[in-house]
Specification:
Helix content is about 55%, strand content about 0%. The chain is mostly helical. The strands form 2 sheets. A two-stranded antiparallel sheet has the order 1-2. Strands 3-4 form a two-stranded antiparallel ribbon. One of its GO terms (biological process) is eisosome assembly.
Length: about 400
C-alpha cells in the first residue's frame, strides 16, 4: 500500500477544466478590478495586532485622580480604532481572495462578477479605515478635556491641603498667628480654584460637544457610503443568471460585462458626489480665547483690575455655528487689544498665564487682549472675590 505524502509536501495543482470554454483575459482597469498584474504572487496578510502588556500600560495608574477615568476611556478608544483599522485591512484581503477564487472556478460569469464584487468589498474596507481616522480626530479632542482635568487637579489639592492645615492648627493651637496667614492663602487658593473650575466646566462642555459631533458625523458618512456600495452590490448580483442547468447543457457566455463596469462607475460617482445632509445641526455658544482656551470666569478675573481703573467697551467674539464639513466649524472675529489693568496672578489659571501672557507685573503699555464680553454674573463673582480678599487683608 503506497504511503500518502506528508501534509507539508509541496504539490503542483493542475488547473481545473473550464466550464464554458476559455476565460476572457482582457486587460482590466485598476478601478474595475482588484486583481494584481502578477496573479501568481499572493502576499500573505500581516498578522493581527495584539494588545501586549507594557510599562506604558501602567501610566493610567499615575494619572491625577480627576483625569484617570477619561484617560482610561481614551485608551480604550485606541483599541476600538485599531479594531476598525484591522477590519478594513481584512475586508480588503477578503476582496482579493474572492476575486482569486472566482478566477479559478472556470465559470465566465462567476469569474467576472466575483472580481467586480471584490472591488465593492475593497471599497468597504477603505471606508472602515477612513472611519478609524475620523475616530482618531474625535479621540484627540477628548485629550484636550483630559489635559484640562490634569491641570485643575493641583489647584484642588492645594486648596484641600490648606484647609487641612488650618483645621490642624485650630485643634492644636487656636491662638496661632499662622492661622491668619493660612486663611489669606486659602482665599487666594479659592480664587484660583474658582477660575480653574470654571475653565474646566467650559472646556468640558465645549470639547465634549465637538468630540461627539465629530464621531456622529463620521458614523453618518460611513453609513451613507456603505449604503451606496451595498445598493450597487445588489445591482451587481442581478446580472448573475442562476437558472438551473441540466447535465450536458452548454452554459451561455456572460454578456453583461459592460453593465457590470457601469455599476462600478455609478458607485464611484455616487461616492464622489456624496455630501453631508442632516436635519439636526450642532450649534455652539462657546467663546474661543487666544491659544484655544475656552474660559468664562477667567475673563472675569481679567476684568477685576477694573476696580483700580475703567474698562472700555469690549467687542465680542462672534461665533457662527456651522455643520457643513466633518466637524462643526466656527467663524471667529478677533477683538482688538483693550486697555485695562493686569489682573493679579493668583486669579489667573496657570494654563491661561502662558496663553494670554498675563503676570503679576503689568506691562509697560498696560494693554491686554480680553477674550469676550463679560456677563453681569461673571463681573459680580469677580468683584465679590476681591472684596473678600481685601477684607481679609484689612483684618490682618
Amino acid at each position: 500500500m503506497p504511503l500518502l505524502p506528508p501534509p507539508y509536501s509541496a504539490r503542483k495543482q493542475s488547473p481545473p477544466p473550464a466550464r464554458s470554454g476559455t476565460v476572457k483575459s482582457s486587460p482590466r482597469s485598476r478601478s474595475l478590478s482588484v486583481r494584481k498584474k502578477n496573479e501568481n504572487s499572493t502576499a500573505a496578510p500581516p498578522p493581527p495586532k495584539k494588545h501586549r502588556f507594557t510599562l506604558a500600560s501602567l501610566r493610567g495608574n499615575y494619572q491625577p485622580e480627576l483625569s484617570r477615568r477619561l484617560f482610561r476611556l481614551i485608551k480604550s478608544e485606541n483599541y476600538v480604532i485599531n479594531s476598525y483599522e484591522t477590519a478594513g485591512h481584512e475586508q480588503k484581503s477578503v476582496a482579493n481572495q474572492l476575486s482569486e477564487w472566482g478566477e479559478h472556478t472556470g465559470d465566465d460569469a462567476v469569474n467576472e462578477l466575483s472580481d467586480k464584487l471584490g472591488v465593492l468589498l475593497s471599497e468597504l474596507g477603505n471606508q472602515e479605515e477612513a472611519f478609524a481616522q475620523n475616530l482618531e480626530e474625535y479621540r484627540s479632542i477628548l485629550k484636550q478635556i483630559r489635559n484640562c482635568e490634569s491641570s485643575v487637579q493641583p489647584s484642588r489639592d492645594h486648596k484641600s491641603k490648606i484647609n487641612e492645615e488650618i483645621a490642624k492648627l485650630r485643634y492644636k493651637d487656636p491662638s496661632s498667628t499662622r492661622i491668619t496667614t493660612l486663611e489669606q492663602e486659602l482665599v487666594r487658593a479659592e480664587a484660583e480654584n474658582l477660575v480653574a473650575e470654571a475653565q474646566l466646566t467650559n472646556v468640558t462642555r465645549s470639547k465634549l460637544k465637538e468630540a461627539f459631533a465629530q464621531q456622529f458625523v463620521a458614523v453618518i458618512e460611513r453609513a451613507d457610503k456603505q449604503t451606496i456600495l451595498a445598493r450597487n452590490g445588489l445591482r451587481m448580483l442581478n446580472l448573475l443568471d442562476d437558472t438551473p442547468v441540466v447535465p450536458g447543457e452548454t452554459i451561455p457566455p456572460f454578456e453583461q460585462e459592460k453593465e457590470a463596469n457601469q455599476i462600478l462607475l455609478d458607485a464611484e460617482e455616487e461616492l464622489k458626489d456624496w455630501s453631508l445632509n442632516i436635519e439636526e445641526e450642532v450649534t455652539t455658544n462657546a467663546h474661543v480665547v487666544t491659544g484655544g482656551v475656552i474660559d468664562g470666569i477667567g475673563a472675569a478675573a481679567s476684568s477685576i483690575g477694573s476696580v483700580a481703573g475703567s474698562v472700555v467697551g469690549m467687542p465680542a467674539y462672534r461665533t457662527t455655528p456651522q455643520m457643513g464639513s466633518r466637524t462643526p466649524s466656527r467663524n471667529v472675529t478677533p477683538s482688538p487689544m483693550l486697555k485695562s489693568a493686569a489682573p493679579p496672578e493668583h486669579l489667573v489659571h496657570p494654563a491661561i498665564r502662558h496663553v494670554s501672557g498675563s503676570s503679576s507685573v503689568a506691562s509697560s503699555s498696560g494693554e491686554r487682549e480680553l477674550p469676550y464680553p463679560l456677563s453681569q454674573s461673571e463681573r459680580s463673582v469677580g468683584k465679590s472675590i476681591m472684596r473678600r480678599q481685601e477684607s481679609m487683608l484689612a483684618m490682618a
